[in-house]
Amino acid sequence: MSNKEDELAAGTWSIYTCIIDEAAKLAFEEAMKGFVGVRHVPVAVSFQLKNGMNYKFFCNATPVVLHPNHFASIVCVYKPLNGPANLIHIFPIQT
Q1: Can you give the residue ranges of every domain in the chain?
Q2: CATH number of 4-93
Q3: Confidence of residue 94 (pLDDT cuts 50, 70, 90)
Q4: What is the distance between the alpha carbons of residues 53 and 38, in angstroms, rounded to a whole number?
Q5: How far is 81 from 34, CA to CA, in rounded Å?
Q6: Which of 8, 23, 50, 73 suits a disulfide with 1, CB 3.0-4.6 Å?
Q7: pLDDT tens-digit profile of 14-49?
Q8: Running DSSP on this structure, what letter comes out for residue 69?
Q9: Long-range contacts of the stretch 80-83 (C-beta < 8 A, 24+)
Q10: How far is 76 from 56, CA to CA, in rounded Å?
Q11: Among 75, 70, 63, which residue's Cα sits nearest to residue 24?
């Protein structure tokens, strides 16, 4: 993990960045393990330090069907200080 903790006050969300560090990638993969039906590919991330790390991933989403309608989504993940990352919510972005 970079100096995220030094850059933000607790509870403050970062701006979105397209540079997704290894800790964020691992949290996303861990939280999405076993999720089926729609493939979410993160393209940007925002984070919040709060008794662990909260992430909001801006994703390109593709339903796993023959002729999918692609859409954008926000995938919310919480990674506690100890323990596995948890999928909190997925918000589809309607256009």
Answers
A1: 4-93
A2: 3.10.450
A3: confident
A4: 24
A5: 22
A6: 23
A7: 999 999 999 999 999 999 999 999 999 999 999 999
A8: -
A9: 80/51, 80/52, 81/51, 81/52
A10: 5
A11: 75
Q: 3-state DSSP call for residue 41?
A: strand
Which residue is listed with tokens 């403050």? 12
Cβ atoms of 93 and 72 within 8 Å: the answer is yes
- Taking alpha carbons only, the member of 14, 23, 32 closest to residue 75 is 32
Cite the beta strand spans of 1-94 per DSSP E. Answer: 38-49, 53-63, 71-79, 86-93
Angle CA 77–51–92, to nearest 5: 20
Is pTM beyond 0.90? Reply is: no
Q: Which two tokens stand for residue 4?
A: 């995220």
Q: Which amino acid is at 18?
A: C
Looking at residue 77, its amino acid is V
| CB-based contact 58:44 (threshold 8 Å) | yes
The span from the CA of 84 to the CA of 7, in Å, is 24
